[in-house]
Write a structure and sequence with these properties.
Helices cover 49% and strands 12% of the residues. By secondary structure, the chain is an alpha/beta fold.
Length: 263
């Protein structure tokens, strides 16, 4: 096992990490500043980015900050459900038994929002999978003209197709309510090297374990997508361990590339 070979305390490129262990890069800090603004002042936020770029990591860090009675966050990622199914899931997450009829589901959600000790903040991950009826329902939940403050806040998190869906004329009312928009970009070559170094140091490894040229090649192959960087780095460490190599060289990485080629 490469953990023993390299004397790591744990897996350095695990996909699921605690919020405290996530790399605090500039992209994340920019995203967090915008999400904090939504929590304090706005109603709807839109966060987009490619698959594996770190959107869920950003959300995890944001939720980690929302402590105490000021906030009542609800996280949903099963967004491929029907519009009614999504409302039922939200009601269940709020601790209620869903009633029959969409109008009753709306009533339950709004009642819970008004009764919540803190602001109800609904985060919809994988929001590019939402159908148009679900997006309409979301807009209706936040658009009460009689409330002094919005009954709930919503953060839409998804891949690029979500932006295209929101540009449709049928979604103009929701689009106009989006006060914060943030696109999470891939890592640059310099950021990729820093990310690899950070992950290694977290588990007792050395930044010299990956040669500088190897880090640059990992960036080029992965496009700066953290999930792909994790996969390549882990596969390279496995191969280096199997060959009893002291570090990940370009030749080892090239062998790893072949393993990642789809037939």
């Amino acid at each position: 096992m490469f953990l023993t070979h390299f004397k790591f305390t744990s897996q350095p490129f695990a996909e699921r990490l605690s919020a405290d262990a996530l790399w605090p890069d500039d992209r994340m800090q920019q995203g967090l500043s915008r999400l904090r603004h939504v929590a304090e002042h706005a109603t709807v936020a839109l966060v987009t980015g490619a698959s594996g770029v770190g959107k869920s990591a950003l959300v995890k860090r944001f939720l980690h900050e929302l402590s105490g009675p000021t906030w009542h966050p609800v996280y949903l990622h099963l967004t491929h459900l029907s519009a009614t199914g999504l409302l039922k899931l939200l009601v269940s997450k709020l601790g209620e038994v869903p009633r029959l009829g969409k109008h009753r589901l709306f009533e339950q959600i709004l009642e819970k929002a008004h009764q919540a000790e803190g602001a109800l903040l609904v985060i919809l991950d994988e929001a590019h999978l939402l159908d148009v009826d679900a997006l309409t329902d979301i807009r209706l939940l936040i658009s009460s003209a009689l409330d002094d403050a919005p009954p709930l806040k919503v953060v839409l998190v998804g891949q690029e197709p979500l932006r295209q869906t929101l540009r449709q004329s049928s979604q103009a009312a929701l689009l106009s309510r989006i006060g914060v928009r943030y696109h999470l970009a891939p890592l640059s070559k310099t950021q990729t090297a820093s990310y690899i170094d950070f992950q290694l140091k977290q588990v007792g490894g050395s930044e010299k374990l990956f040669e500088d040229s190897t880090k640059a090649l990992i960036h080029d192959y992965s496009g700066g997508i953290p999930r792909q960087i994790n996969n390549l780095a882990t596969a390279s460490l496995l191969l280096a361990s199997a060959e009893n190599a002291p570090r990940v060289s370009e030749s080892i990485l090239q062998q790893t590339f072949h393993e990642f080629q789809m037939p």
